[in-house]
């Protein structure tokens, strides 16, 4: 499937099913109790692990989300192995990504306020591609400009005021996951 091709809802649901089966197997191996919730959001399959035991859940999130990021990468590989196509599946554990998005939104809004107050660009701390994309989206929504700089894993976002002649953020400046 070409990168520009849009997947059908059936294909997205199939990816979520494959991912859920894979994650259930991992939970069994780790002897963790948890429920798997599946869906499609923003044209992406999503799978969330929800558990009653906070201790187990914390282990599945890890410090700064490293474990949930690894689970997502492994699950995407499992889906790709079954379907033969790259997946943009999102794996979440106990609402971690929702909380992370809100934190990033607040961080971006603080940077936007600082840029508006001083007129000077603001550099944010290094972030992964998911985090940078959230920040770029918020900055664009608020009418400012952002650009990523640096090399992984030290890539970071700078927030700028738009020049008077600029109407849109240059799409080349945005990180895409």
From TrEMBL:
Molecular function in Gene Ontology: RNA binding
Record SMART domains: R3H
Protein name per UniProt: R3H domain-containing protein
InterPro entries the UniProt entry points to: Jag_KH, KH_dom-like_a/b, KhpB, R3H_dom, R3H_dom_sf, R3H_KhpB
Domain R3H residues, every copy: 98-163
Organism, scientific name: Bifidobacterium scaligerum
SUPFAM superfamilies with a match to the protein in the record: R3H domain (SSF82708)
Pfam families, alphabetized: R3H
Taxon lineage: Bacteria, Bacillati, Actinomycetota, Actinomycetes, Bifidobacteriales
